[in-house]
Write a structure and sequence with these properties.
Blueprint: E1 2-5, H1 8-14, E2 23-26, H2 33-41, E3 45-48, H3 57-70, E4 76-78, H4 81-119, H5 126-145, H6 161-166, H7 168-180, H8 182-210
Parallel strand pairs: 1-2, 1-4, 2-3
Helix pairs in contact: 4-5, 4-8, 7-8
Length: about 210
């Protein structure tokens, strides 16, 4: 039997079925070197592609054709595209979550820095403001790029990542509303809050110092 495994989850599905006469083809990140060596020690033919496959039928079909060329007249088990799509979606959601965590962390740090500076009668440097805006724009663009509920691609006639980077206050609103409706409006308010809260904290510190 020949197995074409595209993800770690796919490998876990077939792991218990593998026998010494089988062949296992995998994407680059599926097996660790130690696992590959152990499988070869069991007599299993292990072949590893030099890269990971994209979650589209054409890419999977190309890999299947390559495997079939090397194992003519042998049955081939291919990990379903639906499984690959689900793994990709999970990875995107996980990355989106981490981006939000990083934004919240940086925003909180900026609140502390700005609040302390304002309470001492000082202003946050312009370079710090610019850096915060730059970092926020980059992370929001990355968040949108990994949003599987509304992929941002030129091929779909949508906006480019560059447009999101420079005009995120407007483009993010459009993105959120078209992908999530009312929920997107709440999401947009959340992003705006993350961005502007440090400035509100500085303003509050200034007012408290004047009273």
């Amino acid at each position: 039997m020949v197995y074409l495994v595209l993800t770690r989850d796919g490998f876990e599905q077939v792991r218990s079925r593998l026998q010494s006469s089988d062949a296992l083809w995998t994407a680059r990140s599926v097996l660790t070197p130690k696992q590959a060596t152990a499988l070869r020690g069991q007599g299993i033919e292990v072949r590893v592609f030099s890269h990971d496959v994209e979650a589209d039928s054409a890419a999977v079909a190309n890999w299947t054709f390559t495997v079939a060329e090397n194992h003519p007249n042998e049955p081939i088990w291919v990990e379903r595209k639906d499984d690959l799509d689900e793994v990709t979606r999970k990875a995107h959601r996980s990355l989106q979550l981490w981006i939000v965590v990083v934004l919240l962390t940086i925003s909180a740090a900026f609140c502390v820095v700005g609040g302390v500076a304002a309470s001492r009668g000082k202003e946050v440097s312009q370079s710090t403001d610019v850096l915060w805006t730059l970092v926020f724009s980059i992370l929001v663009t990355l968040w949108a790029r990994n949003d599987d509920r509304y992929p941002v691609t030129r091929s779909r006639g949508d906006y480019s990542y560059l447009l999101m980077f420079f005009f995120w206050p407007v483009v993010l609103l459009n993105h959120a509303l078209r992908s999530r409706g009312i929920e997107g409006a709440v999401l947009y308010v959340g992003f705006m809050a993350i961005y502007f809260v440090p400035y509100f904290v500085q303003m509050a510190a200034w007012l408290a110092r004047m009273l």
